[in-house]
Design brief:
This protein is α/β, with parallel strands linked by helices. It contains 15 helices and 14 strands. Strands 7-6-8-9-13-14 form a 6-stranded parallel beta sheet, with helices on one face. The protein has a 5-stranded parallel beta sheet with strand order 2-1-3-4-5, with helices on both faces. Strands 10-12-11 form a 3-stranded antiparallel beta sheet, with no helix packed on it.
């Protein structure tokens, strides 16, 4: 069955290359829709969605953008308008069933334009960026395939032709790939770090025996939020709520550094609250600050002098204090209070991670108790709170999590 592949590019600089791509794809029996995201210059070929329409979708006329550029306006101002236009057009094509995959090609500007359209699409839709320069910020945590080209994509020399042929083959292969029929198992979203992996593995194993599938996220929840909003997640077990530590305690620049993104998030998993999903929250990882890519001598001065340990050769874990955990406990209680669905908080009394069990460098029962007391002092009666006399990675804790999960999901 023929598929439709959308190509986002600036046709004043990449027109010949896009035409070559289109010819390869059409020879394989598929359709192509070209979106022209250029502003200056004359298009070498005609786009199926012309740049005038892209600019209009972004909120301005192309004439306005050109006139502003000619008067010396920052180039990125026009790019931002075209980015918004690309996002709306790609989303519209997908909603109308006119997009089975999307690709873009070019340098940094083309990457920003193309990936902006890719990010509005659901997870699993084929996405391919062919670029001369990889900027991780433009890709983020999205399921975008990246093909780096060592030569600029200008001119149809034999190197560029081979590169574009490979790119076309990659995209054709993705859209032609049959999607396995989805099993009708409910899907549970979970959060994990290395220091809570044993717990997550045990819970997953127990859920599997109950007919559930599980998907885990490395303590970062934006993608989990997105899957929840798209209707792909049926319940959340937030074993590793570590992400709350930087969100509550850190200034914006620290959050951006640790999360690898310029935007600063102070809330998490609001989608689960709004969707009324069953939720279990545990304090996994709340016993630490995590500083990746550094050594103890490079951590900020305010964290020095505390208990610490190394997690691998270049990750420093530093103990959270009683005062910090009081703030974190209040925050988690407030989040649980907002849940529209059933929610429980399960607390292991003998340590929140592998690094704080008895005898480990971050062991500090008094700080853990400060978290528990603050949480219980702010949580509403509708939230079930369970304290378990074990470590978070013990079998007993996994048993309690799954037993409580059974209660929350019972019909």
């Amino acid at each position: 069955m023929a598929k439709t592949i959308v190509i986002v590019a600036t046709l004043d600089t990449r027109g010949d290359e896009v035409k070559y791509l289109k010819e390869i794809i059409e020879k394989k029996g598929h359709r192509v829709i070209i979106v022209d995201a250029g502003v200056m210059g004359k298009p070498i070929i005609k786009g199926d969605v012309p740049r005038e329409k892209v600019a209009e979708a972004g909120g301005k006329s192309l004439k306005e953008l050109v006139e502003a550029a000619e008067k010396g306006a920052d180039r990125f101002e026009a790019t931002k308008v075209m980015i918004e236009g690309v996002k709306k057009i790609v989303a519209d094509l997908y909603s109308k069933g006119k997009l089975d995959g999307v690709m873009s090609l070019g340098g940094t500007t083309a990457a920003a334009l193309g990936t902006s359209g890719m990010k509005v699409l659901p997870i699993g839709v084929p996405k391919l960026l062919v670029t001369t320069f990889i900027d991780p910020r433009s890709i983020g945590d999205e399921d975008i395939a990246v093909m780096q080209t060592p030569v600029d994509l200008v001119g149809l020399n034999k190197v560029v032709k081979r590169t574009l042929s490979n790119a076309a083959g990659t995209m054709i292969g993705m859209v032609e790939q049959e999607i396995p029929e989805a099993e009708k198992k409910p899907l549970v979203g979970m959060t994990v770090l290395g220091v809570t992996t044993p717990c997550v593995q045990k819970v997953m194993s127990r859920l599997e025996k109950r007919g559930y599938d599980s998907v885990s996220f490395h303590a970062k929840t934006p993608m989990l939020d997105r899957l929840i909003k798209e209707g792909n997640i049926d319940a959340v077990i937030d074993v590793t709520s570590f992400e709350t530590v930087p969100m509550v305690l850190y200034p914006p620049e620290y959050i951006s550094m640790l999360m690898g993104a310029p935007e600063v998030r102070r809330v998490r998993l609001e989608s689960a609250n709004e969707k009324a999903l069953p939720q279990i929250i545990a304090p996994g990882g709340l016993d630490m600050h995590i500083f990746p890519g550094t050594g103890i001598d490079q951590v900020p001065s305010e964290f020095k002098g505390r208990a610490w340990t190394m997690h691998g050769p270049m990750v420093v874990l530093i103990r959270t204090t009683k005062e910090e955990l009081e703030k974190v406990g209040k925050n988690i209680a407030e989040r649980a209070n907002k849940a529209k669905g059933p929610v429980a908080i399960i607390i292991p009394l003998r340590g929140f991670s592998e690094a704080s069990k008895k005898g480990a460098p971050l062991h500090d029962p008094e700080a853990d108790r400060a978290f528990i007391d603050a949480l219980k002092g702010h949580v509403e009666e509708k939230v079930k709170v369970v304290e378990v006399d074990c470590h978070i990675n013990d079998d007993e804790f996994a048993d309690q999590v799954v037993g409580t999960f059974d209660e929350l999901t019972a019909k």
